[in-house]
Amino acid sequence: MTKTKRRSLTPEQKKLDVNLWIIVLITAAAYCFYGVFGSPVMAFCKDSSISVWPRLFAAAAMEYAVAGLGITVVCIIRKLSFISFGLKAKNAVKAIVGTVICFIPYIAYIVLSGQFEGYEPLSIMVTPDLYKAGLITAILGTLVVAVVWGFFEGFNYAVIAEFISRRYPVKSRFFDWGALVCTLMGIMFHPIHFDTLGMIDFITTFIALYGMLMVRKHTKNSWGCVFAFLCIWNAL
C-alpha cells in the first residue's frame, strides 16, 4: 500500500499564509476592541461639545485598525510598496470606469428603493463640526476622511484579494477566490434583510464588490477600488 504524499507548500505560499494570518489577527483584535469599547468611543466621537480633532482621530483610528492597519503591517514587514498592488497610472481610467459600471445596479437599487438621501462623499459623523471649525480645519479634516474612509478602505479590499488570489490561483476568467472572499467579507458587514428588497440589496451589493475586484484583477489597477469607496460606497 503506497502512502499519498501531502504536497508541501512553496516558500511563497507559506509567506502568503503568514500575510493573511497577520491581517486576520489584527482585524479580529480591532473588532474585539470595538465590541468592548465601541459604544463609549462612538459617544465620544458624536459629542459636539468636545474639540473636533480628537473626535476625528478617535473615529479614524478605529476605522483604520479595521481596514488598513493589517495590510500596512504586512507591507512594512515584507518591504512591499503600495504601488506594487496596482496604484499606478496605467489602466487607472479603465479600472475606474469598469468599477462604476459594476456599481450601477447598486446605485439604481438605492435610488429606486427610496433609500437615497443625498450624495455626500467624504462625509462622516464629525463632518458638520469640521465645516464649522473653519476652512483650514475643514480641508485637513476632509483629507483625513479621504485617506482613512476612502483610500484605505478601498485599497484594503484590493490588497487582501491580491494575497488570496496569489495563494489560491485559478485559471478562470470570471472566478477568483480573492474577489469572492473579499466580497462575502464586505457583505457580512453590510446589513442585509431577508425579504424581496433585501435579496435585491444582496445581489446588487455582490455585483458591485465582486465586479470591482474582478476589474482590479484584469486591469491590474487598484484605483477603481479606491474610487468606489471615495465616491460611491461611502457617499450614498
Describe this structure in words.
The chain is mostly helical. The protein has helices spanning 11-46, 52-66, 69-78, 92-112, 127-132, 135-167, 177-188, 196-219, 223-233. Helix 1 packs antiparallel against helix 6 and helix 6 packs across helix 9. The radius of gyration is 19 Å and the shape is globular. The chain starts with 10 loop residues before the first helix and ends with a helix.
Précis, in short:
This protein is mainly α and 236 residues long.
Estimate the helix proportion, in percent: over 70%
Low-confidence residue ranges: 1-5
Q: Which whole number gives the mean pLDDT?
A: 93
Please indicate the percent range of residues in DSSP E strands (runs of 2 or more). Answer: under 5%
Outline type? globular
